[in-house]
Amino acid sequence: MDIFIGRDPFQSAISQLLSMPDEFESSSNPHARAYMRDAKAMGKTCVDVKELPDSYVFVADMPGLKCGDIKVQVENDNVLTIGGERKREEATDQTKYLRMERPSGKFLRKFTLPSNAKMDGISAACNDGVLTVTVPKIPPPEPNKPKTIEVKVG
C-alpha cells in the first residue's frame, strides 16, 4: 500500500492561495492577512517521503524552529501529522520591515500511513533545521512452511 502524498483538495486550495499576488495580502483586512500568512506557511513546509526496506522516512525542512515548536503525532491510528508554528520577530518602533518573505505562522502536514506501518515504533529527530521522522514497517509474516507428517508403515 502506498502512502497518500498526492494533492488533496486542501492542498489544491493552498496552491491557489500561494499564487495570489502580494498586493492582495496587503490590501485585505488583518484577519485575511493572517489566514493567508498561515496558509502560505503550511503550503511551503516541504517534506520528502522515502521508503526503505524496513521503514518509511519523512524529511521536512524546519529552518529556524526549536524542537519545542514542532509537533509530531499519529491521529486516527494511521495519519502522521507534522505541525507547529513558525514565529516572526515582532516589529518595534525602531524596526521597519521593507520586505517579509520568510514564512511564518502555523503549519500542518498530514500523511496517511500504510497498513504495514508500526505505529508504536515511530521516532523523530531534528538536526540543523531538518526534521526526520522514521516509521518502521511491520515485518511481513513468515510464509507458511509445509508441515511434514511422518507416515508409519505396518
TrEMBL record:
Q: Does the keyword Cytoplasm apply?
A: yes
| Keyword field contains Cytoplasm | yes
SUPFAM superfamilies membership: HSP20-like chaperones
Q: Which PROSITE patterns does this chain map to?
A: SHSP
List the subcellular locations.
Cytoplasm
Its GO CC terms?
Answer: cytoplasm
Domain SHSP, by residue range, is: 38-152
Question: Sorted alphabetically, which Gene3D superfamilies does this protein's record hold?
Answer: 2.60.40.790
Origin superkingdom: Eukaryota
Predominant subcellular localization, coarse grouping:
cytoplasm
> Keywords for this entry?
Cytoplasm, Stress response
- Note the InterPro entries from the entry: A-crystallin/Hsp20_dom, HSP20-like_chaperone, Small_HSP
List, in alphabetical order, the GO biological process terms annotated in this UniProt record. response to stress
> What family does the database annotate?
Belongs to the small heat shock protein (HSP20) family.
Q: What is this protein called?
A: SHSP domain-containing protein
Which organism is the protein's source? Riccia fluitans
